[in-house]
Amino acid sequence: MKQFIPRRFIAQNGKCAVTGVKLGPDEWHCHHKIPCYLTKDDSNGSLMISHKSIYLLIHLGDKEKIQMSLNMFKLNEKRFKEVNKFRKQCLNVAI
User: Fold this and answer.
1) Distance of CA 94 to the CA centre of its chain
2) CA distance 93 to 95
3) Confidence band (pLDDT; 50, 70, 90) for 1?
4) What are the residue ranges spanned by the domains of the chain?
5) pTM (2 decimals)?
6) Cα–Cα distance measured from residue 48 to residue 85, given in angstroms and rounded to the nearest whole number
């Protein structure tokens, strides 16, 4: 997978796939759209770059931490639906 990360970052112009925000060198995480353990797919197309907090929001179960992340980004309806789409793909409940 490591060889795909720079390609994915460049393909997204260094922006978060959910928020569209330009990401600094320590702000991003490479995320499997559908967990690798479910698909065994490590290809470039199965990956996305997101802000670290968005990555956590996709995976978090703790309601307080979820709310803190939501407050941080103030996602519009479209972005909120994106987060929930990725949560469902990771077998997490929608928020």
Assistant:
1) 14
2) 6
3) very low
4) 4-89
5) 0.80
6) 13
